[in-house]
Specification:
This protein has 8 helices and no strands. It is mostly helical.
Length: 175
Amino acid sequence: MTTEQTVPHAPEHAPRLAWAQHAPEVYKAMLRLDTAARKGLDPRLLELVKIRASQLNHCAFCLDMHSKDALAAGESVERIIQLGAWEESRHFYTEKEVAALALTDAVTVLTGGTSQAFGSGGGFVPDEVYEQAAKQFEEAELAQLIAAITVINAWNRFGVTCRMVPGHYEAGRHQ
């Protein structure tokens, strides 16, 4: 007879700062910015971008939130799981999604490219990444995508710096 033994999980960490309570006007402005940035973008594509940026920024709170929102929007578990290795799993995504993910990586990390004017060393979005995105998105949609990538990176900075606790978010709470 086998006995199932429950192994306790590591304790949940406490957040460092409830920043939204202490800076409510900034929080409200971020919510308005987020709402404005998402206009005209496919909700599933938006969630893939938010998950990918959150992976790169190691924001567990945002990973929890946007994975749940993606699932609620009809995204598959398989495609969410593959985001961590999307370059090797390109066949899971459309060319438009691949371009959005590449742009997300480039905007989030900002270490790519070389500059003829300033020598190598990166620090900007490589032309080839931008050009691929520009081929897949109309200019207005591309501007919204860049805005959405920028906004999730800002949210990630709040989440990581304040050590926001993942695991308690319910899908759709901030839609």
